[in-house]
Write a structure and sequence with these properties.
Blueprint: H1 7-15, H2 20-36, E1 46-50, H3 56-64, E2 73-75, E3 82-87, E4 93-98, H4 100-104, H5 112-121, H6 124-127, E5 128-133, E6 146-148, E7 155-157, E8 162-164, E9 167-169, H7 171-178
Parallel strand pairs: 1-2
Antiparallel strand pairs: 1-3, 3-4, 4-5, 6-7, 8-9
Helix pairs in contact: 1-3, 2-3, 2-5
């Protein structure tokens, strides 16, 4: 991503388009930064637990730098626009929950661009209930050894492999094997 773009432009570029969902995640990320005194994550210091699988998650990844690949973006898909963000150094965390009224008050015929603009121009306190959270933050990501599945030959993380007749088997092959290949 080009660093001379604004954080919003970077999030939109990462996501592929602009939309109200991306704007919600962007404002949630802004709230997390304001509450925790952080900018973008560098080395898994910040952890984000997200409770949905919407467009908002791309803004969390882009703005906060929390990603599934680094192990500091955790999905708990409860279907809620809720984001808990914490830092490992001192365990401080905040829960950022979209207020029901923030979106239910929008007009049914409000155009998508208007809704997005309204979200982006709102103070995070108008959009979200923000409170301190108690959170047991997970350890930093661990890199496990890869073993070869004795059935399909593909590599599988050793901690995810199962043993069948004393040989490593990936979960897909193990499921097929137990169904009676």
């Amino acid at each position: 991503m080009c660093m001379d773009k604004s954080p919003w432009e970077q999030a939109a570029e990462f996501h592929g388009h602009t939309c109200p969902g991306l704007a919600i995640g962007f404002k949630a990320a802004e709230a997390a930064i304001r509450e925790l005194g952080y900018t973008r994550d560098i080395d898994e210091e910040m952890v984000a637990i997200v409770e949905n699988d919407s467009c908002s998650i791309d803004a969390i990844q882009s703005v906060l730098g929390c990603t599934a690949g680094k192990g500091n973006l955790i999905f708990r898909n409860n279907g809620k626009q809720v984001f808990t963000v914490g830092r490992r150094s001192d365990g401080k965390a905040v829960r950022i929950a979209l207020k029901y009224e923030a979106m239910s008050g929008s007009k049914k015929d409000e155009p998508r661009e208007g809704k997005m603009k309204r979200i982006l121009e709102s103070d995070p306190g108008e959009l979200f209930d923000i409170r301190e959270a108690k959170l047991d933050l997970p350890e930093k990501a661990v890199i496990f050894k890869t073993v070869q599945c004795s059935c399909c030959g593909e590599g599988v993380m050793e901690s995810r492999a199962r043993l069948s007749d004393g040989r490593p088997v990936c979960s897909d092959c193990f499921t097929e094997y137990t169904r009676g290949w």
